[in-house]
Amino acid sequence: MDTVSLSGKELAAAVNADTKLRAGALGDAPARLALVVANDDPASAWYVNSLRKAAERLGIVCETVDLGADADVAAIRAELTARSADTAIDAIMVQTPLPSGVTLEQVSPAIAAAKDVDGVSPLSLGLLAAGLPGFAPATAQAVVEVLTHHEIPLSGRHVAVVGRSNVVGKPLAQLLLAQNATVTVCHSRTVDLPAVTAAADVVVAAVGRIGLVTGEHVREGAVVVDVGTNESADGGIVGDVDADSVRGKASALTPVPGGIGPVTTALLMRHVIEAAENRRSV
Ligand code: NAP
């Protein structure tokens, strides 16, 4: 079977074109994103830089607030609380990894929901679960938008999500339920993962382990989404799916890079503009 590549580049370009127009419409009061960083991780620095460039290209002002790799929970929460109250700031993101001993769950409650453009706070996650307006985590939303863009039906289909993190797996399950999919969420304690995922029409890998999902995990004709962004031995980016063994069996597969990643960034920037528009209309 030919396996179609579900690129995210075309969709990301379309989202970005719309965002740029909307950013321009804000005139001399541009949207402002505060990016809070508390690490000295090179991969994080690369990602922060790419977010800054994406924002600049679209006409969004991005302020990086570097608290240093030794920042504690109180310092990070204080910064997020201050930025939440700062009327000059429309949107807030907190970059991971956080300092050793600090979890996203400890600091994210300090982000005001109206500015929480990556949907990480408990309030944002609760709004999503309740089907109420709010920002969904961009990566989870990117999975649904890539599938929709490529006209992969979700209503009534069985989707197996591998991974149950608060940033990808759990919110993705909620978004898929909202699309009327039947959802199975798998994790490290799932017994006989290949048997569970091979029963699904769509398999989403969001694990953080190179090549965890192989041809054995996928039934003939299934659609496979690879959320993974792992660093390979040669410094490149590889996914959670062993593409060689899945190709020829799956009907479609998202590439890494060029699949979920560019759409995630584009949706984050769209959320920044939405946050700015919402604040200006109140
Ligand atoms: P995470 O917080 O580390 O969660 C990983 C999940 O995978 C956990 O739920 C874990 O189960 C599960 N898992 C680990 N080993 C497993 C196994 N052998 N079998 C089944 N499940 C297993 O990771 P994350 O933040 O969700 O990220 C997942 C991946 O997505 C990473 O590669 C990350 O880099 C990537 N990512 C990409 C983007 C993007 O823009 N494309 C954005 C965010 C994340 P337990 O809960 O039982 O431990």
TrEMBL record:
<feature type="binding site">
    <location>
        <begin position="163"/>
        <end position="165"/>
    </location>
    <ligand>
        <name>NADP(+)</name>
    </ligand>
</feature>
<keyword id="KW-0028">Amino-acid biosynthesis</keyword>
<comment type="subunit">
    <text>Homodimer.</text>
</comment>
<keyword id="KW-0378">Hydrolase</keyword>
<keyword id="KW-0521">NADP</keyword>
<feature type="domain" description="Tetrahydrofolate dehydrogenase/cyclohydrolase NAD(P)-binding">
    <location>
        <begin position="137"/>
        <end position="279"/>
    </location>
</feature>
<comment type="function">
    <text>Catalyzes the oxidation of 5,10-methylenetetrahydrofolate to 5,10-methenyltetrahydrofolate and then the hydrolysis of 5,10-methenyltetrahydrofolate to 10-formyltetrahydrofolate.</text>
</comment>
<keyword id="KW-0560">Oxidoreductase</keyword>
<dbReference type="InterPro" id="IPR036291">
    <property type="entry name" value="NAD(P)-bd_dom_sf"/>
</dbReference>
<feature type="binding site">
    <location>
        <position position="229"/>
    </location>
    <ligand>
        <name>NADP(+)</name>
    </ligand>
</feature>
<dbReference type="Pfam" id="PF00763">
    <property type="entry name" value="THF_DHG_CYH"/>
</dbReference>
<dbReference type="InterPro" id="IPR020631">
    <property type="entry name" value="THF_DH/CycHdrlase_NAD-bd_dom"/>
</dbReference>
<dbReference type="InterPro" id="IPR046346">
    <property type="entry name" value="Aminoacid_DH-like_N_sf"/>
</dbReference>
<keyword id="KW-0368">Histidine biosynthesis</keyword>
<keyword id="KW-0658">Purine biosynthesis</keyword>
<keyword id="KW-0511">Multifunctional enzyme</keyword>
<feature type="domain" description="Tetrahydrofolate dehydrogenase/cyclohydrolase catalytic">
    <location>
        <begin position="6"/>
        <end position="118"/>
    </location>
</feature>
<comment type="pathway">
    <text>One-carbon metabolism; tetrahydrofolate interconversion.</text>
</comment>
<keyword id="KW-0554">One-carbon metabolism</keyword>
<keyword id="KW-0486">Methionine biosynthesis</keyword>
<dbReference type="InterPro" id="IPR020630">
    <property type="entry name" value="THF_DH/CycHdrlase_cat_dom"/>
</dbReference>
<dbReference type="InterPro" id="IPR000672">
    <property type="entry name" value="THF_DH/CycHdrlase"/>
</dbReference>
<dbReference type="Pfam" id="PF02882">
    <property type="entry name" value="THF_DHG_CYH_C"/>
</dbReference>
<protein>
    <recommendedName>
        <fullName>Bifunctional protein FolD</fullName>
        <ecNumber>1.5.1.5</ecNumber>
        <ecNumber>3.5.4.9</ecNumber>
    </recommendedName>
</protein>
<comment type="similarity">
    <text>Belongs to the tetrahydrofolate dehydrogenase/cyclohydrolase family.</text>
</comment>
